[in-house]
Specification:
- The chain contains ten helices and no strands.
Length: about 220
Amino acid sequence: MNLFEFVADRWDRISLEAWLHVSAVVQCTIIAAVLGVLIGVAVYRSPIGSAVATALASAILTIPSFALLGLLIPVVGLGTEPTVIALVLYALLPIVRNTIVGLGGVDPAIADAAKGIGMSRFGVLTRVELRLAWPAILAGMRVATQMLMGIAVIAAYAKGPGLGDEVFSGLVRAGSANAVNEALVGTIGVVILALLLEGVYFLISRFTISRGVRG
């Protein structure tokens, strides 16, 4: 059975795994974005706070995926829970760092001008600073999403959802019938999904970032 026949024969299963894979990555990126932006907002005015937040997020990223999942399994068990926790933790660094950089790059004169016309501190943050920092935040989310597409494959080790099942099954059954097809389907599927999400981010940037800010 060649690759195309394999895909046609198992299309229902592969399409479901692909949907679960991209769904897990997108949802974890959104959760990480909420947490990362809140952390960035909390520390961006403090050099020490920014350094600590970035260092902690960097430290998490240095933990090997297998090791982190192995540590989470005894605590939360197998399945979706360790996958979500691991993906959210790995996505934090680019989002936190880019939020700090984006907010820190806003010209203080612009914030002062907003205050001068009567805006509250919350209004300046949400209506001026976060809007100007949005391109950097979106770039951080984009990097995080691409990272998670690959890391989500490793999550199959903890019985997580997605195309990792195909890759692991192919590796475990190396040498048997369709083992190569399974590994290829999982790998190529992840690449295709990553490219599709790149297209989504391109559209989001086109519709949410003004032409003047995009330069």
